[in-house]
């Protein structure tokens, strides 16, 4: 089985502070981490490898320093790593990012493509489904359990108020959430392997994507304005049984003529 895991390097949002004057994010000096949901995707791929045997390839699209995230994935147990990087990708929105990653994944042998549900910086949850669309793959998002039965997978997909049991044929794409598993730590022997392991570098000319679909040119999203939402007040905490709390909330909303 060949499993490709999409890994995004993101700023550790626990460390991001807001500039009190400009109201913008202070990114300088903020450490980068593997996006948390992507760690669950890596863990699931490694667990499937432990159970059924698999080759796990991690792939990221990003600047050269994103190689660190790939090395960490190798130290967790991934077999191969690919960094897709080119100035032509600058300004990519989620559509261009999905198409670029899909173009790279298309060059690989894969049975399962895994991504995190959502990146903690961009937060759109669009890239996994976008890759599946570009590759023409069936997909299941919000995956919280995977069982392999030959060429089909039995998946438990989390819903807001329960779960759904689904069966899907490989090749397919899955997006991972944190309840899927507990990501393993890097292992000492793999840390040494990660040092020596060469990461494959691909640029725009190595992947089969229409140049018009790359970077800013291939990005229909236009950001008109960004701002930090003002905190209006401390709020009021009401600790009551759910039914009584709902009645209090209702009366407060009526009092303010919201309903
Ligand atoms: C107009 C515009 C311009 C932008 N310009 C830039 C820019 O110049 N440089 C820049 O860095 N960002 C840029 N961005 C942000 C960039 O589009 C997003 O960070 C990126 O598309 C991923 O979206 P997301 O963070 O919402 O990921 P989500 O869709 O929330 O991510 C879901 C999952 O997809 C996978 N994934 C997402 N991104 C990657 C990746 N890069 N590599 C591997 N796997 C991935 C991960 O598994 C992740 O968990 C721009 C965005 C817009 C709207």
UniProtKB/TrEMBL annotation:
GO MF, any single term: electron transfer activity
Domain Electron transfer flavoprotein alpha/beta-subunit N-terminal: 22-211
Alphabetical list of InterPro entries matching this protein: ET-Flavoprotein_bsu_CS, ETF_a/b_N, ETF_b, ETF_beta_N, Rossmann-like_a/b/a_fold
Cofactor(s) needed: AMP
Sequence intervals crossing the membrane: none
Entry's family note: Belongs to the ETF beta-subunit/FixA family.
Name the UniProt record assigns to this protein: Electron transfer flavoprotein small subunit
Source organism of this protein record: Dethiosulfatibacter aminovorans DSM 17477
């Amino acid at each position: 089985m060949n499993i490709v895991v999409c890994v995004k390097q993101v700023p550790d949002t626990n460390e991001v502070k807001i500039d009190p004057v400009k109201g913008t994010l202070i990114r300088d000096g903020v450490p980068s981490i593997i996006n948390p949901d992507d760690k669950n995707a890596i863990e699931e791929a490694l667990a499937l490898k432990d159970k059924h045997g698999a080759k796990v390839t991690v792939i990221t699209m990003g600047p050269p320093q994103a190689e660190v995230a790939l090395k960490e994935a190798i130290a967790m147990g991934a077999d191969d790593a690919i960094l897709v990087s080119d100035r032509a990708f600058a300004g990519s929105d989620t559509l261009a990012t999905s198409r670029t990653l899909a173009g790279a994944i298309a060059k690989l042998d894969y049975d399962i493509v895994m991504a995190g549900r959502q990146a903690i910086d961009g937060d759109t949850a669009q890239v996994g489904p976008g890759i599946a669309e570009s590759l023409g793959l069936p997909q299941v998002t919000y995956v919280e359990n995977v069982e392999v039965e030959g060429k089909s997978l039995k998946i438990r997909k989390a819903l807001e108020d329960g779960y759904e049991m689904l069966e899907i044929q490989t090749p397919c794409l899955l997006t991972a959430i944190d309840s899927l598993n507990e990501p393993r730590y890097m292992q000492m022997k793999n840390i040494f392997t990660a040092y020596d392991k060469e990461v494959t570098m691909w640029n725009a000319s190595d992947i089969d994507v229409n140049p018009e679909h790359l970077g800013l040119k291939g990005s229909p999203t236009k950001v008109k304005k960004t701002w930090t939402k003002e905190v209006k007040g401390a709020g009021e905490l009401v600790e009551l049984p759910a039914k009584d709390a709902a009645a209090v909330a209702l009366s407060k909303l009526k009092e303010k003529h919201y309903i």
